[in-house]
UniProtKB/TrEMBL annotation:
Gene3D superfamilies: Aspartate Aminotransferase, domain 1, Type I PLP-dependent aspartate aminotransferase-like (Major domain). Transmembrane segments: none annotated. The keyword Transferase applies. SUPFAM superfamilies: PLP-dependent transferases. GO terms for molecular function: pyridoxal phosphate binding; transaminase activity. Keywords: Aminotransferase, Pyridoxal phosphate, Transferase. One of its GO terms (biological process) is amino acid metabolic process. This is Aminotransferase, putative. InterPro entries: Aminotransferase_I/II_large, AspAT/PAT-like, NHTrfase_class1_PyrdxlP-BS, PyrdxlP-dep_Trfase, PyrdxlP-dep_Trfase_major, PyrdxlP-dep_Trfase_small. Pfam families: Aminotran_1_2 (PF00155). Its cofactor is pyridoxal 5'-phosphate.
Amino acid sequence: MFPSSCFRAVEKSQTLVINEQSRQLEASGREVFKFGFGQSPFPPLPAAVAELQAQAHQKAYAPTQGIPELREAVAAFHRDAENLDVTAEQVIVGSGSKILIYAAMAAFTHADVLIPAPAWVSYVPQAKLLGHTPIRVVSHFEGRWRMTPEALLASIAQKENPSTPSILIFNHPGNPDGLCYTDEELTELASVMRANNILAISDEIYGLLHHTGGHKSLALFYPEGTIVTGGLSKWCGAGGWRLGVALLPRSLGVGESEFKNVMTGISSETYSCAPLPIQLAAVKAYHWQSPELQVYLRHQRKLISFLGTWCAKTLRDEAGIRVHTPQGGFYLFIDFTPFQDLLVQKHKFASSGAMCQALLVDTGVAVLPANAFGMDNDYMAARLAFVEFNGADALAAAAKLGDDV
Ligand code: PLP
């Protein structure tokens, strides 16, 4: 009916391509090892599940910014757990952190969005959907995929118009590389951000899954310019509940600030609010002093830390793959560049996408290609999510072992 030139160009997500291909293979009777999808293997926190069941009858619309008791709980949680100076007024609750990242970017009519590579699959498409200009911040395997102050400055130098606002997407612990930054690195990066008047969106959705529990928010180092995003999807094993939070810096998050109004306006005019029963359940999850929560997090961290270290070592030692031991989250960025000649010249793979599709068909192993994470097409790497295990059983076994886990 309409010519395709009427539609916006949105590339098909590699996650969907690989998932669809996995489904087809399984339907044909093949065993598929699903290391592609980034879903927590752990069940949601029992106290939150019990509350959700108790609140299932709640049917009212909730306030767009989030119910006050949840915003209070989220602010207290981040004060206690991370020493952030945040109040309920600065908290926005949404249907997942993805839409909150989008809403924060959407507050600008036009912006340059500085996005690390590799980085999570949705940042670049979100920036493009909004008509912003994505600019890559380059990092390397040898530098453990870290964004350096020099790389950040180099990306700022690529801006066509210095007066266009700059947004930096920051993500740690990192997806796809499991990277966490040190205090010193955060301090140095913050000073570049400050000097260049950058608004940082710090995606800290894996913060509580820092393997040693030592997560430090960028907002500690750059409080005036950082929006922190997070939510229940990863540490609380509840991606499908769609509960995300954004912590606005004080200047943007108080009273009727224009920025806060745009962000809540986008929610209000699209999905309205995060569902009320989920918000009430989240109040129980966001309770830092709860001994149940502490054990739940400690056991998750020990399990994924052990598995991540083991997987990385085994891939390095047994298969010669280049990979760093993750420091947080549940991903490995596996780098096949030592086999580049074999992959490109012999197998004729034109892209990491083609390589991952062949890997899936030939071996049943599903991983996501590096080009989905912003790397050049011919950079032969992939993200492996080491979450293909029964998290409920693993947590139950860990509970029996207690602190010996
Ligand atoms: N940020 C990163 C780095 C992620 O990996 C994901 C989910 O995979 C999200 C954000 C989305 O989180 P949410 O479920 O809160 O929208």
